[in-house]
Amino acid sequence: MLLVFTAAAPLLASAQGLEEALAVKDEARRDAVAAQARIDALDDATREALLAYRAVTEETEALRRYNAQLERLVASQAENLTSLERQIDEIEVTKRRVFPLLDRMLGVLAEFVELDKPFLLQERALRVAALEAERDRADVSLADKFRRLLEAYQIEAEYGRTISADRATLELEGGATTVDVLRFGRVGLYYLTLDRRSAGVWDAAENAWQPLADEYRHAVSEGLAMARREKPPALVRLPVTFGGPAGGPRP
């Protein structure tokens, strides 16, 4: 038995050493797994930190560009404000210059209508009166006042390029008489009584209506028909009047 024990002792020692070696190996493997887990965790944390850093960097760059854009916008608005202030100052200067011009032009228009041939008297006088009333209104801009005045000038200019036939009541030798009035631009202004028995012309030199010879009654009637578009345009022979010492109807 002693011999058997003696022979088995080295085997037992060898087995114990193997177990210890295996235990150390297992422990080393567990330590390696734990170390790898810590490394993996560190890698994940590093990756998350890197992603967060990149996101913050991109947001910072976006904010920088936005701030730069805002600075340009503020600078542009400051320039626009300066320009607007300059324009406002110029507008005030323009107003001080334009209003006297507007007033003079309105006075010229009123005088022109008063001295012109007596056609569409009520319509033209009302137009001038409306402009004069509007001139002193604070709720109408200077631009609108000037625009409407120019429109009135344009209407007056159109009268010189058109013909018209209107009905009016004139103070003639027989008293108030209703007549048809023929206007050829501003060259001639004529009347024809409704019974077609009497015709006349406006004498600018005498500032009065003058009767016409009977031979012109048909021409005035033809002119009225053309103005009303009842007949096509054609030549008519009518006298015109001239101001000055040699005034009076002339064919």
What does this structure look like?
It is a single chain. It contains 4 helices and 7 strands; from the N terminus they run H-H-H-E-E-E-E-E-H-E-E. By secondary structure, the chain is α+β, with helices and mostly antiparallel strands. Among the domains are: 97-158; 163-250, no CATH class. A 5-stranded antiparallel sheet has the order 1-2-3-4-5, with helices on one face. Strands 6-7 form a two-stranded antiparallel ribbon. Strand 2 and strand 3 (188-193) form a beta hairpin. The chain is rod-shaped, with a radius of gyration of 54 Å. The chain starts with a helix and ends with a strand.
| Major beta sheet summary | 5 strands, antiparallel
> Kindly, what is the distance between the CA atoms of the first and last residues, rounded to a whole number of angstroms?
174 Å
Please report the number of helical segments.
4
**Average pLDDT over all residues:** 83
The global form is: rod-shaped
Portion of residues within helices: 55-70%
Q: Can you count the beta strands?
A: 7
Helix and strand composition category: alpha+beta
In N-to-C order, the SSE pattern is: HHHEEEEEHEE
Strand order of the largest sheet: 1-2-3-4-5
Query: What percentage of the residues does DSSP assign to strands (E)?
Result: 15-25%
Alpha-carbon Rg, integer: 54 Å
Unreliable stretches (pLDDT < 50, length at least 5) are 244-249
Secondary-structure topology with pairs:
Blueprint: H1 2-115, H2 121-135, H3 142-159, E1 163-172, E2 175-184, E3 188-193, E4 199-203, E5 208-211, H4 217-227, E6 240-242, E7 248-250
Antiparallel strand pairs: 1-2, 2-3, 3-4, 4-5, 6-7
